[in-house]
Structure prediction request, 201 residues.
Amino acid sequence: MYENEDNHHEIGVSTAELFLGAKFRRSFSATLAVVLTVLLASCGGNGSNGGGGGSSTTFVPGKWSATLYSGSGLLFANTVELDLDLVQSGNTISSDSGHSVDSATCSGMHVDSSTGTVSGNQFRLVFTIDSERITLTGTLSADGKSITEGKFTSSGGTCISGAPIGFSAGVFPPLSGPFAGDMQIDPVGAPGVTASRAVHL
Prediction:
């Protein structure tokens, strides 16, 4: 009789333990499912943001100026300035011969033009001076308005003097509003004239 009661008691304890264990497993599984869902959602969000190269930079078209450095070092570098009015269509950027100019001292007619692409924060432009092609590549700033550590190569010619070092570039903001200044009229010694006008580009 005592053995039956003991056995019954042992069976009752085992059933309770099984019930509590099953309840714990269900709770743990539900918690784990929630954690996994949150983690997967986070990974999915990062993946979609990274689909464009990890950058949301938007290139700003307009009047750009690039300074190219070449030679043996920045302190005594040769410089060439490229000024252009870049327009954008999709990922393609360009500036025609009527809106491109250079400061190079090479010979020739200096018929300039450029064409290139932007993808995310990656910038690539081929600037042509007559038959010499200068390829510029760099990373755009976060606001899409400048490049500080660009690289360039030349197809060969006399417009770039010395080995290429690098270039920096930036967009000029539109000019608007009144400007005043002095105008000097030749010959030297003629009286100065003060003029002001509103400039709207």
Observations:
- The helical segments are 2-49.
- The first strand starts at residue 62 and ends at 70.
- The chain has two domains: 2-52, 62-171.
- The longest helix spans residues 2-49.
